[in-house]
């Protein structure tokens, strides 16, 4: 154990913490459990990270630095779609860490990389400042919520038991619209559903009046 402590690095702790979060979720994460996994005394972790919160800051930083950021294409719709898809992809790669990120209260500077790309894309497309801010909030809320629903199993096809329970809850005929759609409701297609939602959002944003010249002459960075 003493040899392990000597080679323990801040980055190694962060990577192990992310792995533990992804396997067991935030509810199953603790500094003691992380120390046991690394084969060290819990105090060894605090020699590298002053507190659990400080460690979580580093985990969130590492997570957001790994978020895919496609190169700008000049088509704001395609660029926004790519950025949102990249965030969803990140959620699938690091499910527990992503769920921790969604509820983490502190700002993590690395998350501004994604935000900057979204704002820059919309400003360069001529969206007024206020509309750009509203659009980014909407896009992030949709993508994060959809990803969390996927991670928690809400968007998986229903098995026989779940389908039977749903049918039983509709007994009595008080919900004819739901009953008529039950087969479709029970067999979601997450890929198609996510794309549909983005299509709707982008179509709506396409109707927002835009400036002929980007605000303050803003040009999207290369």
Number of strands: 0
Strand content: under 5%
User: What class, by secondary structure content?
Assistant: mainly alpha
CATH domain fold name of the largest domain: Tetracycline Repressor, domain 2
**Residue windows where pLDDT falls under 50 for at least 5 positions:** 1-6
CATH superfamily placement of the largest domain: Tetracycline Repressor, domain 2
Dominant shape: flat
CATH class of the largest domain, please?
A: Mainly Alpha
Provide the residue-averaged pLDDT.
Answer: 92
Task: Describe what this molecule looks like in 3D.
By secondary structure, the protein is mostly helical. The protein folds into 2 domains: 2-50, Arc Repressor Mutant, subunit A; 76-217, Tetracycline Repressor, domain 2 (Orthogonal Bundle), CATH 1.10.357.10. 67% of the residues lie in helices and 0% in strands. The longest helix is centred in the middle third of the chain and has 23 residues, at 129-151. The chain is flat and about 60 Å long. The protein starts with a helix and ends in a 17-residue tail after the last helix.
Secondary-structure map with pairings?
Elements: H1 2-7, H2 10-24, H3 31-38, H4 42-48, H5 52-65, H6 76-93, H7 95-103, H8 111-124, H9 129-151, H10 160-169, H11 176-180, H12 182-185, H13 190-205
Helix pairs in contact: 2-5, 2-7, 3-4, 6-7, 6-8, 6-9, 8-9, 9-13
